[in-house]
């Protein structure tokens, strides 16, 4: 029989399972973000203890490696000053004629639909260091954002 028609196992043709990608740069977190990471680790460990299916166990172990790494590399940031936009700030601003409000957080805590933006997002980077009443450039437009207030 030709080698071309021989197959050692079905596993040869499965898609490889890669580690979950860790965002580049520092793992900055708020206290809330660290609590969310810890809760996720605890949740995965509990599921892993009850898992019996080998594929499920592999998946959970991969997730646990990711979240354990995120927990061990977390750098809790001090609360920001109220007068300058920084990590942890909640900012109210005007963009394209609409009032918006976001909080700048770490990657794992980010949820744009809830107004939680990662510190590395272009919008957060544009607002970083701004003060209330200031306008900042964004999206290639000068003075595109007017900062109304910072909490």
UniProtKB/TrEMBL annotation:
Transcription elongation factor GreA/GreB C-terminal domain spans which residues?
81-150
Spell out the molecular function terms from Gene Ontology. DNA binding; RNA polymerase binding; translation elongation factor activity
- What biological processes does GO assign it? DNA-templated transcription elongation; regulation of DNA-templated transcription elongation
Coiled-coil segments? none
Does the entry feature the keyword Protein transport, yes or no?
no
Ribosomal protein as a keyword of this entry, yes or no, is no
Under InterPro entries, the record lists:
GreA/GreB_C_sf, Tscrpt_elong_fac_GreA/B_C, Tscrpt_elong_fac_GreA/B_fam
Q: Which residues form the signal peptide?
A: none
Q: Which UniProt keywords apply?
A: Elongation factor, Plasmid, Protein biosynthesis
Which superkingdom does the taxonomy of this entry point to?
Bacteria
Q: Any idea what this protein is called?
A: GreA/GreB family elongation factor
Its taxonomic path starts at: Bacteria, Pseudomonadati, Pseudomonadota, Alphaproteobacteria, Sphingomonadales
């Amino acid at each position: 029989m030709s080698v071309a028609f021989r197959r050692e196992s079905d596993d040869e043709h499965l898609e490889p399972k890669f580690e979950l990608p860790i965002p580049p740069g520092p793992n900055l977190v708020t206290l809330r973000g660290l609590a969310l990471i810890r809760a996720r680790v605890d949740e995965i460990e509990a599921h892993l203890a009850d898992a019996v299916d080998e594929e499920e166990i592999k998946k959970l172990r991969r997730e646990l490696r990711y979240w354990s790494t995120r927990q061990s590399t977390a750098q809790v940031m001090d609360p920001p000053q109220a007068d300058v936009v920084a990590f942890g700030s909640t900012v109210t601003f005007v963009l394209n004629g609409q009032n918006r409000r976001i909080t700048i957080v770490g990657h794992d805590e980010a949820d744009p639909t809830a107004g939680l933006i990662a510190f590395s997002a272009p919008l957060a980077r544009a607002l970083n260091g701004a003060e209330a009443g200031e306008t900042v450039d964004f999206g290639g437009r000068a003075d595109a954002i007017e900062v109304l207030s910072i909490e």
